[in-house]
Write a structure and sequence with these properties.
Length: 476
Amino acid sequence: MKRAKVVEEKSAHFKSYKYNIVPLNFPGSAEPVVELPEIKSAMDAIRNIDGLPKPHMSSMHREGKSIWDLLDWLSLAFGFQKSNVENQRENMVLLLANISTRTSGQEGHPLVNTVNDLWEKIFGNYESWCRYLHVSSRIMIKYDDTELKKQQLMLLHIGLYLLIWGEASNVRFMPECLCYIFHHMAKQLNQMVEESYFQPPPGFEAEGSFLNIVIEPIYKVLQKESQRSKGGTAGHSSWRNYDDLNEQFWSEKCFMKLGWPWDLSADFFHQEGRSARKPKTNFVEVRTFLHLFRSFNRMWIFFTLAFQAMLIVSWSSSGSLSGIADATVFRSVLSVFITAALLNFIKVTLDILLTFQAWGSMEWTQILRYLLKFFVAIAWIIILPVTYSSSIKSPSGAGKLLNSLTWNWYNQSVYNFAIIIYMIPNILSALLFLLPQLQNIMERSNWRAVILLMWWIQPRLYIARGMHEDIFSIFK
């Protein structure tokens, strides 16, 4: 009965104050959880607003707000909702307290290191996104600042991102879109801090303006695309899902097309007619049995070439594998490269046909890659048969190939040279397959020379880069 009475008293005490886990800023006596050193340290850090530009008193009176911590300051600067601020304040305190608790046994781990740990976890994807697009990060922490100032700036950026995330709703399923939003808002935040002048961006003065100006336009696009999907029964090429919309932010062109605040006249925000082909970014599912060849082309090519080589050897005069030592038989076996070129041409043609519906929104570099592969494939199905026919008129075979290994360039047939050139991309692909760690490094690299080299192999995507299995897993 005593415990029930205590619970009833506590319930009446907390009835007028809303909170989730930690009763921050609770009027009256402090609760035990708030007295924990990790909680108090996190709250003290968030409440440090010294040195920040002061808002105009008129705007504070108009909104009926008081600034108690960094999140209140950000709310007044960008028009975040009060409930979102309260939720993210508690979220931020708990994140910092959890990290402090896990590192409490480590000597020399001050709060600024705790803030840095949280900063690295939250902004890992944003920093990777900036490097991928070759744009400068908006998180500018000056090395000559004091530790307290660095901590305050880090917490400002963390708080800004959490407040964006808190009101993002379904836009949370588009992480690079959140990076784009944060990128522009962080620039505005830095300008206010550096100039020591509090001036909210135009249109962001009132509470809820961030939701109306930034999130609502994207949410309406998501809503329209959801209606076009007809409950998931419409074809994938007729509507855009979260991934398709998110891929718009994988290119530096998004800065020019979408602007800030949003350019609502951009194609991204407009619904096309039902008869028009809806642009997809990199993939449009086309249901056809031709995928059996396209998806497993290496297997079919290997089976076809192996069957052709075995057929040539079995129909030779000896009828055994030793017959390949004969110059005439060996020259006939080399014709498998002509078949390989023909099968590769079929594969490249299927690539174009089965991705054609995505060309409306593909990068021009991807379209150029498809076209170049197509014309290169045509060139090889012309070059290899012509050079092969010319090699038949002159001595050829195993002896002549051996001369090529000793760099006897004068006696080398043109066909053998053509084979070597034709096999260079395949040899590089095999090398990357046998060295997956090297391929992972090259795919994650943002060097333009490496990007150009990898561009020929596959389209450059932001996600799933450098996720190949290690060599031991491959040979299991």
